[in-house]
Design brief:
- The chain is an alpha/beta fold.
- It folds into 2 domains: 171 residues, Rossmann fold (3-Layer(aba) Sandwich), CATH 3.40.50.1970; 184 residues, Dehydroquinate synthase-like, alpha domain (Up-down Bundle), CATH 1.20.1090.10.
- Helix content is 44%, strand content 19%.
- It has 13 helices and 13 strands.
- It has a 4-stranded parallel beta sheet with strand order 4-3-5-6, with helices on both faces. A 3-stranded mixed beta sheet has the order 1-2-9, with helices on one face. A two-stranded antiparallel sheet has the order 7-8.
- β5, α4 and β6 form a beta-alpha-beta unit.
- α5 packs parallel to α8, α6 runs parallel beside α10 and α7 packs antiparallel against α8.
- The radius of gyration is 20 Å and the shape is globular.
- The relative contact order is 0.12.
- Bound molecules: nicotinamide-adenine-dinucleotide and glycine (GLY).
- The site of nicotinamide-adenine-dinucleotide has 29 residues, from α4, α5, α6 and α10.
């Protein structure tokens, strides 16, 4: 792996023709305002953050906007997955209308994936679409949710059931913001990092096996490297299949199982990354039951997820029927059949509806956390 410590800021590109945009990764980016003010289309902006992140970082962003002569307003949302709702989107739209923001205004999402998804969706629908900028402040949002243009909110019956594709103008991933992140949230983000190794990059998976202790100690150079490799994979997949006609679905490894866990346990009780971690083990288990992969894939996944302090099984109390009922309303259902991301090998995932339903029931009935 190349050493990113010699180059504090790395810039990748998401190649989508006229909607291409940069992802800046590194330490000190919040003190380089031109990285984002250059992407503000008009002369006004609305910054969306939440009650946890705003006290930490909002003033720095507002000061930069003042210095650049950009008129700004703000919306501070309640913190939590349970607030990722249409009501939150409405509160942003209300403020935009009250403060007479026009079609050239730019929305700025300052926070984790919840703030990013809500803000991106508000930007997608306000006056049929205004520009937006992502300033992700969690590991999960820096490696995944801020890149690729999936925006949206939850419905009581299912995760991310309401949304739109809307690409940001740029992504600013300042690794210094991870200093204030709670340890449990660092772990949750690490689940999506491990995902990239599992679906696409066995060499990266081995690197993570070697470096996980340093990553969990928040070694800055290691974190920047993990974010760079993750974003590189995500950017390449999104550039190849922006609207998830095919390939992009591999990014959903563990997510169909995971969304069922999040939904069954009540939004916010299991973190998204925790549920994805359990879901990835279930995907490995089902692939192994079909004889598609060697047992070592599941075993190595469990060991790495353990090192990242993540759950490797579903909640003990969830029944097979509960799983199947919730999975049946997932977005990955096609003509009544649940599509799943499964494994050909470590580092190679594929999307399948051609699995044995009895083996799926066995996977759902096993893989439980001990109580
Ligand atoms: P989150 O946004 O809830 O953030 C986690 C917690 O950390 C929150 O309490 C937040 O206030 C706090 N926080 C954020 N930054 C902080 C910082 N720097 N210091 C201290 N605390 C901080 O959760 P998340 O894990 O970032 O994102 C999860 C969401 O992302 C889910 O809703 C999931 O569905 C979505 N998601 C979307 C995509 C996509 O492609 N759009 C991809 C993956 C996940
Ligand atoms: N997190 C899955 C995707 O962006 O497609």
């Amino acid at each position: 792996m190349p050493d990113s410590s010699t180059n504090p800021i790395q810039t990748l590109q998401v190649d989508l023709g006229e909607r291409s945009y940069p992802i800046h990764i590194g330490s000190g980016l919040l003190d380089q305002p031109e990285r984002f003010t250059d992407h503000i289309a008009g002369s006004s902006a609305l910054v969306v953050s939440n009650t946890t992140v705003a006290p930490l970082y909002l003033n720095r962003v507002l000061t930069h906007l003042d210095q650049a002569g950009i008129r700004h307003d703000q919306v501070i949302l309640e913190d939590g997955e349970e607030y990722k709702t249409l009501a939150a989107v409405e509160s942003i739209i209300d403020r935009l209308i009250e403060q007479r923001h026009d079609r050239k205004t730019t929305l700025i999402a300052l926070g984790g994936g919840v703030v990013g998804d809500i803000t991106g969706f508000a930007a997608a629908i306000y006056q049929r679409g205004v520009p937006f900028i992502q300033i992700p402040t969690t590991l999960l949002s820096q490696v995944d949710s801020s890149v690729g243009g999936k925006t949206g909110v939850n419905h009581p019956s299912g995760k991310n059931m309401i949304g739109a594709f809307h690409q940001p103008r740029c992504v600013i991933a300042d690794t210094d913001t991870l200093d204030s992140l709670p340890q449990r949230e660092l772990s949750a983000g690490m689940a999506e990092v491990i995902k990239y190794g599992l679906i696409h990059d066995a060499e990266f998976f081995s690197w993570l096996e070697r470096e996980m202790e340093g990553l969990m100690r928040r070694d800055k150079a290691l974190l920047a490297e993990a974010i760079r490799v993750s974003c590189e994979t995500k950017a390449a997949v999104v550039a190849a299949d922006e609207r998830e006609a095919g390939l992009r679905a591999i990014l959903n490894l563990g997510h169909t199982f995971g969304h069922a866990i999040e939904s069954a346990m009540g939004y916010g009780n299991w973190l998204h990354g925790e549920a994805v971690a359990a879901g990835m083990v279930m995907a490995a288990d089902l692939s192994e039951r079909h004889g598609w992969i060697d047992p070592s894939v599941r075993q190595r996944s469990i060991e790495l997820l353990n090192k990242a302090r993540l759950p490797t099984g579903a909640p003990a109390g969830m029944s097979v029927e509960q799983f199947l009922d919730i999975m049946a309303i997932d977005k990955k259902v096609d003509a009544g059949v649940i599509k799943l991301v499964l494994f050909k090998s470590l580092g190679e995932a594929f999307v399948s509806d051609d699995y044995n339903p009895q083996l799926l029931r066995e996977t759902l009935g096993n893989n439980r956390l001990e109580t």
